[in-house]
């Protein structure tokens, strides 16, 4: 949430329109400050010809880790105090991993949830994407070079689709070049940020709700990736 979102929320419930400077002054007068964690994302998308766009479905593949510990991106904090966030006890570390494929043209998601990241769970995702959701037609799949993508079993699974799937490997240690990273930020902002969940399954449920909304054309929660033609 940023100061603009606070302004719109106050206008909606009170009918009063405040400028950003006026809002910040009122918050400061009450002894609070508005804190925002800054993060910049840069997406580079190659220009494609219309014929290529019609022939291929481009999917941006990536992974996202979910933790029961909440991510705090913005908050109202009383001046002179430090916010304390509850943490899990030792030995209670809970994580899940989202394997996802972002359809670049339609802004839709295909995903699977796994307890571990390895060749087997990656192959499960390939089955979900290329067998269940896109069983025919040409596909471009953009991936990074994590080790289990190129294990013997993973490469054997990928070879089954090479007649219709073009695999694009990003340079080593350059996962930020994949525009799906912008979607992961959007997903965590809506599903996880500033939310305290008692169990990892609650985090997964919240995340899958936002993922499902991404596939609904009329949803206000959809993320739309900027495209350069």
Q: Provide the domain count.
A: 2
- Sequence stretches where pLDDT stays below 50 over 5 or more residues: 36-54
CATH topology of the largest domain: Nucleotidyltransferase, domain 5
Assign the CATH superfamily of the largest domain.
Answer: Ribonuclease H-like superfamily/Ribonuclease H
Portion of residues in beta strands equals 15-25%
What topology, given as strand order, has the largest sheet?
A: 5-4-2-6-7
Global Rg: 21 Å
Mean pLDDT: 77
Oligomer category: single chain
* Count of DSSP H/I helices: 7
Query: What is the level 1 CATH name of the largest domain?
Result: Alpha Beta
Alpha-carbon distance between the two ends: 31 Å
Run of helices and strands: HHEHEEEEHEHEHH
Summarize the helices and strands and which ones pair or pack.
Layout: H1 3-14, H2 20-29, E1 32-36, H3 50-55, E2 56-67, E3 74-78, E4 95-103, E5 108-114, H4 119-133, E6 138-143, H5 152-159, E7 165-169, H6 180-191, H7 200-214
Parallel strand pairs: 2-6, 6-7
Antiparallel strand pairs: 1-3, 2-4, 4-5
Helix pairs in contact: 4-5, 6-7
Task: List descriptors.
229 residues; elongated; alpha/beta; 7 helices; 21% strand; two-stranded antiparallel ribbon; 2 domains
Notes on the protein architecture:
It is built from seven helices and seven strands; from the N terminus they run ααβαββββαβαβαα. It folds into two domains: 28 residues, no CATH class; 151 residues, 2-Layer Sandwich (Nucleotidyltransferase, domain 5). About 8% of the residues have low confidence. The strands form two sheets. Strands 5-4-2-6-7 form a five-stranded mixed β-sheet, sandwiched between helices. A two-stranded antiparallel ribbon has the order 1-3. The chain is α/β, with parallel strands linked by helices and 229 residues long.
